[in-house]
């Protein structure tokens, strides 16, 4: 495929940013970064703990330059602890800190989540922490060092399952696929042309499900009448439901349950999600003009505000696209100084 060489991954995560291409292995590069740090509010880095100290780019050094700086370090395993020196990757952390064990079909092997969800949750925790640090700075005038890591954030997002283990003192109940360990039926079922997720989350909703499936007699069947009985007879009931759901297409079942007040959903692929009527109605796909790639579609910001409209102010940058601009406007260098730095290979 011919193109300018920009990856879809890069385009997906780097909008509204400016690119300064700089080598901090050169003292002149370190000086530039320290000047930027002296003026900025927030610095985010994700190097192995301790590796920036030899360049004078660690928190202690930069705090002397800018006491109000909020310095966020994102690592695999944090600044302390026996694993702190390890390089961290999402899939490794999913494996070691519980997520992979509880993800996958009941009798199948552990699997990773389809996106790098631990990377994403760590980024979200970090951004929340930065906002909190900004509020604290408004009161104290002081910045601080934020130590955020994949392993801690993954442990935190075990949520109710972690709480159950801690309160009970017992191991978790393992993988459940799309099903729920204590609610039946609450899982995906095969249709004539795909899959649909049905949620009979309580006895009333189970009754709606029975009527929609054309099996009203299940509502009074002693094996299925209350949720505890349905859990005890999970295998047989789920098999009977799937015999029925296989007789119609996903869309036919969606039409049957529309407006009935019971939770249900088609299981869509990513392309269908991005062209979904609700996705489009919520303005979750937007088009922007990229200097080299031309018009590109991007996923929009997911949060709506009553007083503010977040926008994609600029498309993802190309490497070093804003080097001159940043050095000129934020560091105060002249065109000649920038030219000399480029000749030395400090910036590009």
TrEMBL record:
The keyword Manganese does not apply. Keywords: Transferase. GO terms for cellular component: mitochondrion. Pfam families: CoA_transf_3 (PF02515). Belongs to the CoA-transferase III family. PANTHER family: SUCCINATE--HYDROXYMETHYLGLUTARATE COA-TRANSFERASE (PTHR48207). This is CoA-transferase family III domain-containing protein. It comes from Neurospora tetraspora.
């Amino acid at each position: 495929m011919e193109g300018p060489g920009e990856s879809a991954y890069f385009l997906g995560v780097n909008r509204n940013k400016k690119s300064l291409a700089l080598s901090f292995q050169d003292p002149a590069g370190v000086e530039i970064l320290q000047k930027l740090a002296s003026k900025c509010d927030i610095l985010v880095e994700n190097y192995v703990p301790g590796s920036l100290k030899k360049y004078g780019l660690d928190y202690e050094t930069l705090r002397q330059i800018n006491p109000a700086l909020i310095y966020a370090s994102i690592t695999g395993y944090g600044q302390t602890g026996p694993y702190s020196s390890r390089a961290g990757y999402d899939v490794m952390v999913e494996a070691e800190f519980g997520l992979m064990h509880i993800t996958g079909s009941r009798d199948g092997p552990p699997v990773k989540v389809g996106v790098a969800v631990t990377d994403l949750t760590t980024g979200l925790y970090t951004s929340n922490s930065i906002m909190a640090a900004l509020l604290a700075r408004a009161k104290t005038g002081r910045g601080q060092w934020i130590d955020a890591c994949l392993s801690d954030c993954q442990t935190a997002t075990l949520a109710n399952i972690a709480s159950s283990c801690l309160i009970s003192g017992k191991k978790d109940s393992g993988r459940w696929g799309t099903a729920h360990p204590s609610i039946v039926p609450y899982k995906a079922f095969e249709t004539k042309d795909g899959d649909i997720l049905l949620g009979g989350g309580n006895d009333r909703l189970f009754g709606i499900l029975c009527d929609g499936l054309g099996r009203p007699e299940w509502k009074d069947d002693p094996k299925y009448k209350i949720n505890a009985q349905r859990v005890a007879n999970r295998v047989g009931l789920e098999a009977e439901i799937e015999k029925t759901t296989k007789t119609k297409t996903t869309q036919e079942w969606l039409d049957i349950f529309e407006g009935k007040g019971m939770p249900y959903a088609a299981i869509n692929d990513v392309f269908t999600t991005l062209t979904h009527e609700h996705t489009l109605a919520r303005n979750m796909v937007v088009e922007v003009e990229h200097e080299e790639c031309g018009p590109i579609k991007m996923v929009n910001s997911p949060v709506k505000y009553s007083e503010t409209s977040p926008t994609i102010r600029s498309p993802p940058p190309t490497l070093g696209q804003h080097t001159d601009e940043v050095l000129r406007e934020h560091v105060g260098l002249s065109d000649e100084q920038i030219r000399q730095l480029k000749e030395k290979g400090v910036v590009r």
